[in-house]
Each structure stands twice: as C-alpha cells, then as structure tokens.
Amino acid sequence: MKPLVSIIVPVYNGSNYLREAIDSALAQTYTNTEILVVNDGSTDGGKTEAIALSYGDRIRYFRKENGGVATALNTGIREMRGEYFSWLSHDDAYLPDKILSQVEYLKKTGNKAVVTYTDFAYINETSEETGTFRADAKMAANRFLAILSTSIHGCSLLVPKACFEKAGLFSEKLRTTQDNEMWLRIAKAGFDFVRLPRVLVKSRRHSEQGQLKLRDVNVRETEEFYLWAVDFIWEEIEGLRPEVIRLLGKRRQKEAAKMILERIGTPAYPNVISRILTRMKLWLA
To answer: Which pTM value belongs to this model?
Structure first.
C-alpha cells in the first residue's frame, strides 16, 4: 500500500513562512506525494508567487482570485491527483515522518475509510518550539467530541479523497470555522477519526494569523457553528435521553444541559444552551 498523497498548501501573502512549509513537505520520508501550492490572490508585490515558482516542477502551482482559505483548499482538492488529502498551512510545517506514520497506520489496519490526525507542537515567529498539544484520550475516543472540542488540528489530518466525494467540499461561506464544519460533516458521513499520539506537525502562532485579523468574524462564526452542530449531531446523543428526561422531570434543566454540553464538547454560549434546552424538552413531548 503506497497511495499518492496530495499535500495542499493554501497561501495568502505568505512570503515570511511559505518556504519553510514547502521545504517540510518536500522533506517527507514518505515520498509518494505531490505538493500543490494554491495562491489565494496574494497582494504582496509577487513575493509569495516568486517563492512558489522557485521550486519549479517539484510542486504544482495555482493562482486564483482571493476568496478565503476554503476556496483555496477546494481548488487544491479539485486539482489533486492523490488518494489522500493533507492540508499544510503556509505558516505551519510538518515533521519528516508525518505522512509516513499515517500511511503506515492505514497499511497496518487495512482500513481506508478512516481519517487520521496527530498531536502537534507550537512554534513562534522564529520557529522555536514553545509547547505541545496532546489531545485528551477521552476526547479522542469519540470523533464528534474530538471535533467539537477543537482537539483536532486541521494540518495534522490525512483525509481520504472519498470523504469529499461523500460529504462535499469546504464551505466557502465560512472564513474561520470551515475546518471543523468540514470534519463534522465527514464524521456524520460515517468516517471514523483516529488519533495517532505523536507530535508530527508544527503549528505557528504569530501576529499575522488570519483568525487574529478576523477576530470578530471568528467569534460570530464559532457561535453559529455550535448552534448548527447541536442540531446536526443531535441523534448522536440519544443515549443520554433517559438521564436527561429524569433530570428534566426534577426541573434540573441546567444540570441536564451541562451534561449535554460536556458530552459534545460545546462551549456554554447562551444561544447554544437555549437551543439545547429546546431540543431536550422535545424528548418530553
């Protein structure tokens, strides 16, 4: 088993870090890869494009009008030739065995209908490691909980292309929550998510990050995402119905809502709690 893996690098005005990202993709010990760099309409006087073009035929390069990360990822997915998709943000980097570790897991288990993800390290502007994130085993045991608790770093995933064929592409209406929304649709489509407990990705924190620049958009989209998610996976928490009904019968609504919040890893946004209370009461009807 040696499937072609497509590493897709969306980039917008990323000349500061793009070379490090591409070099980390080229340095993978698993060699059956292709690297697609998608320039999302950079406006930095050609700096980003010059870096990408300097790699010649070692990468595939695409330029498009600016539309956001989701549009760049979708461009890459449409152009990819591989059986598996791996996202690499222009300001992040892979450790050398990232792809190999995931392909070896797939080979060992023989299960192609699974999304694998890994732990990751934090780095700063100068690529110095500042910490690590290791997903909680309890969170990782349930794919919905892992996604909703934001324990999954998008660049750590290895995703079968079949996921997009079944669940669709990234939502281009979303600017900051397109990743978790996509993973939730893939999980609902029946694909499992398996954590490999190794740090195999370097996630950069810096002042120019898109989510920082889109802070207000992120706050709004995040709450809207959880409101949508409650409805989208409600059937997945049916197992809590007897206990919730017992608590509701004792007029302990807040305790019942808290139980569900913990079960699906959802932050306690007032509107989300209200949505949960409304749905819980339907169980009494």
So the answer is: 0.89
